[in-house]
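Design a sequence for this backbone.
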């Protein structure tokens, strides 16, 4: 922790949309980052699931420098090789058909999905998209309307029309909510922000059947759970591993897609792939050569080093070891859940050490972990998330487990 000039300048000059922790980070190496006072932290948050290969990766830095020396950005009025290769690769990872639209963030990717769904349903008046309670889809006006959490909407009425929410995992509720105006449903295969809640294969299969039966689009938000985090490129591919032909109609991507650089995208299946034609949608920076080259290099490294398998192996190891900690400290920890390297650890209720502060337990434990030298991400009121780089080693995982154990023991005493 430090009270650095970096912090003072940001507090003085940056609009305070984030309540930041008092840590000013200056550089990183692999799974570790360092603050302005020289303190070293193990980073199991990775920029909230963005830094897919950690920090200061030499091959990514070289790929970025090489592309920066050639062509940074020219707009989408022209063709560029890095975008062509990345689109081809993403289509292959999505199963080999369909097309990609590139943008700059997860919220923007979801905007493209909303517009795709509206255009698809326009002739039949099907403008409505059903989403789920506890979901998070981004901070744009339509994003907060789509998000199933009241807190993100406060003060921003009137809401963008055409979104209704049903409980996550409840197929009957989804079926009952369908109206003549419904054109699509949008779900996260794993809800991230509300505390790492995984869909079951039965739920996703049921949604697919319902959409087929009622001629609706099935849209997935893969922004947080996608890009190899669960052991396959898309989260749905891991959940639906036993169902080879399963696919949504379209999905959004963001966060770790370009391994820490801002990039969002959607994949749209063949019947939808040309719906967003010229003049219907766009963004100046979508799929720049610079960011595309970085994303391509990251995917090349992930595939070359078999990091999808690492994601599964280290993810299972972390979950198993945290399971043992839960058994030893039920007064502090309650549950571990997730898939691969998207792990949520739920705290027990009424932890005595947290009683004095009104701040959520999730934030209080994250602060204690900071003091111990570990970065994790709070989610909801009582969950902290581990979203480490996909190339995390067993040694780093063990370091993280030891730091968590120390803090848990302290809270249990
Ligand atoms: C599932 C999901 N969708 C969308 C978003 C929004 O992404 P961004 O912050 O890049 O706009 C997030 C961000 O946390 C997310 O977790």
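Sequence:
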């Amino acid at each position: 922790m430090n009270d650095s000039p970096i912090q003072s300048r940001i507090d003085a000059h940056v609009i305070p949309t984030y309540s930041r922790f008092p840590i000013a980070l200056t550089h990183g190496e692999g799974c570790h980052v360092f603050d302005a006072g020289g303190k070293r932290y193990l980073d199991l948050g990775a920029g909230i699931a963005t830094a897919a290969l950690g920090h200061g990766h030499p091959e990514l830095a070289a790929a970025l420098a090489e592309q920066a020396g050639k062509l940074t950005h020219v707009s989408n009025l022209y063709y560029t090789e890095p975008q062509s290769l990345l689109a081809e690769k993403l289509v292959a990872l999505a199963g080999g058909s369909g097309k990609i639209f590139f943008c700059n963030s997860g919220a923007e990717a979801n905007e493209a999905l909303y517009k795709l769904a509206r255009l698809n349903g326009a002739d039949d008046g099907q403008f409505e998209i059903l989403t789920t309670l506890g979901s998070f889809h981004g901070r744009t006006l339509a994003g907060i309307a789509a998000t199933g959490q009241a807190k993100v909407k406060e003060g921003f009425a009137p809401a963008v029309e055409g979104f209704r929410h049903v409980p996550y995992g409840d197929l009957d509720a989804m079926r009952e909510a369908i109206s003549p105006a419904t054109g699509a449903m949008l779900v996260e295969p794993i809800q991230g922000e509300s505390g790492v809640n995984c869909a079951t294969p039965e739920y996703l299969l049921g949604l697919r059947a319902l959409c087929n039966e009622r001629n609706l689009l099935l849209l997935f938000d893969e922004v947080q759970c996608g890009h190899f985090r669960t052991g396959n490129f898309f989260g749905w591919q891991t959940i639906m591993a036993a169902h080879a032909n399963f696919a949504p109609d379209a999905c959004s991507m963001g966060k770790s897609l370009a391994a820490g650089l801002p990039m969002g995208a959607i994949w749209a299946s063949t019947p939808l792939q040309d719906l967003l034609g010229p003049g219907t949608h766009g963004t100046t920076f979508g799929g720049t050569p610079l960011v595309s080259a970085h994303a391509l290099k990251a995917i090349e490294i992930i595939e070359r080093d078999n990091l999808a398998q690492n994601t599964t192996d280290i993810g299972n190891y972390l979950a198993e070891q945290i399971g043992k900690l839960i058994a030893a400290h039920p007064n502090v920890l309650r549950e571990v859940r997730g898939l691969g390297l998207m792990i949520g650890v739920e705290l027990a209720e009424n932890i005595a050490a947290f009683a004095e502060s009104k701040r959520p337990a999730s934030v209080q434990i994250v602060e204690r972990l900071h003091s111990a030298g570990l970065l994790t991400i709070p989610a909801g009121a009582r969950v902290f998330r581990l979203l480490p780089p996909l190339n995390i080693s067993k040694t780093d995982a063990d370091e993280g487990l030891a730091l968590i154990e120390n803090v848990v023991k302290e809270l249990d005493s």
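The pocket of pyridoxal-5'-phosphate is lined by residues 105-107, 110, 136-138, 188, 192-193, 221, 223-224, 254 (CB under 6 Å).
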